[in-house]
Design goal:
The chain is an alpha/beta fold. The protein is built from eleven helices and twelve strands. α4 runs parallel beside α5, α6 crosses α9 and α6 packs across α10. The longest helix has 22 residues.
Length: 359
């Protein structure tokens, strides 16, 4: 199967189908239990190729908390300097977390994203620039492959988008039993395709779209993230201003705090930070979808960023225009609200929105 490469700032992420031991990255990551026994899957293969010095080094640091990562020697591996051991198996700790009214899904999301985040933190601290990941937890930990792909792609893309360092990341998908086809990995590809919009968004949100009006609030003073109290972010094209104004009135009537960028003037650099903060704070994103908004690079970037940050999105359809290609795969399965008649659709919108906000 073909490999696919994605660019994030100065970094690259390459998805490969094959054996991770063929990688020439400085670091090779693997999945293991809290005592790093290296008993199966990728971990066992690394042990066989790199020798007993790897597991002897790991034993100095056990037990390791669920979701954490330790770095050890790479033994006799030809190219690697270190092995990063991602802890995905700790039945006792997992049960303790779930006893605290945390769902199984929450536990999986935490351990997968936390493990990836810790790998990037170690890379920076150790001044390393390349790493090869397997689908961590998809083997002995028996985490569903789609969950692994979903959460790892989110975490890898987020870390690459948030650094200006030049990193080379490889994500190996190795189906030893030939169970899967490339189509089974569509979640990974569709997620990563949208993540490129996040980087473009951070680099040039306020400078490329002639549709933009820079916001001003509170006498030109830039609101800080800590001062934001809104629950809803409205993403729209300025050419759909009438619908946006209608929404604002409806939200005011229902006591729903919202953020919209229609007022004021800021410098472009501050404006980009403002949008990022406003989406981060929000609990839901309203996407006013129209022919105009789906050709607006700023709207596309906003939705791409919201998807990357796992924000619930409520699309309001003003016409039959298809979603922009770069966000289509990420939101095509989300229920739409026909908003061609706003008065008739307002009740359904408020009901749906309140459900999301109260989850």
């Amino acid at each position: 199967m073909e490999q696919r490469t994605y660019t994030f700032n100065q970094s690259t992420l390459t998805v490969k189908f094959g054996n991770i031991l063929e990688s020439q990255a400085e670091i090779i990551a693997s999945s293991d239990d809290c005592y790093v026994t290296m008993g199966g899957g990728v971990s066992r293969a690394i042990l066989r190729a790199g020798g007993e010095s790897i597991i002897k080094d790991a034993q100095k640091m056990v037990p390791v908390p669920l979701g954490d990562v330790i770095a050890t020697t790479a033994g006799t591996l030809e190219y690697q300097k270190y092995v990063f051991h991602c802890i995905t198996i700790d039945k006792k700790r997992r049960m303790q977390m779930m006893a605290s009214q945390v769902t199984e899904e929450d536990v999986l999301n935490y351990l997968l994203q936390h493990a990836v985040d810790k790998c990037f933190q170690l890379m920076q601290a150790m001044e390393l620039t390349s790493i090869a990941f397997p689908a961590i937890g998809a083997g002995s930990a028996r985490i569903p492959i789609q969950k692994v792909i979903e959460q790892m792609s989110i975490a890898i893309a987020r870390n690459l988008a948030n650094t200006n360092r030049s990193l080379n990341v490889e994500f190996y998908l190795y189906d030893i039993y030939n169970i899967y086809s490339e189509s089974d990995y569509i979640t990974l590809f569709k997620n990563l395709a949208a993540k490129a919009a996040l980087v473009e968004y951070q680099q040039g949100l306020a400078t490329t779209d002639n549709d933009i009006v820079l916001p001003v609030q509170n006498g030109n003073h830039l609101p800080t993230k800590d001062s934001m109290t809104h629950k809803v972010f409205i993403s729209y094209s300025r050419k759909d201003q009438d619908t946006a104004d209608f929404l604002c009135n409806i939200f005011k009537e229902n006591g729903i705090e919202y953020w919209i960028d229609k007022e004021g003037i800021y410098s472009s650099s501050n404006y980009k930070e403002l949008i990022v903060d406003a989406i981060d704070v929000s609990k839901a994103v309203i996407f006013i979808s129209s022919e105009k908004s789906n050709t607006s690079i700023n709207v596309i970037r906003e939705i791409g960023y919201a998807v990357n940050m796992n924000k619930p999105i409520l699309p309001l359809m003003l016409d039959d225009a298809p979603y922009a290609k770069s966000i289509r795969l990420d939101i095509s399965d989300i229920d739409q609200i026909d908003f061609r008649n706003p008065m008739a659709s307002s009740k359904k919108l408020i009901t749906s929105l309140m459900y999301v906000l109260n989850k």
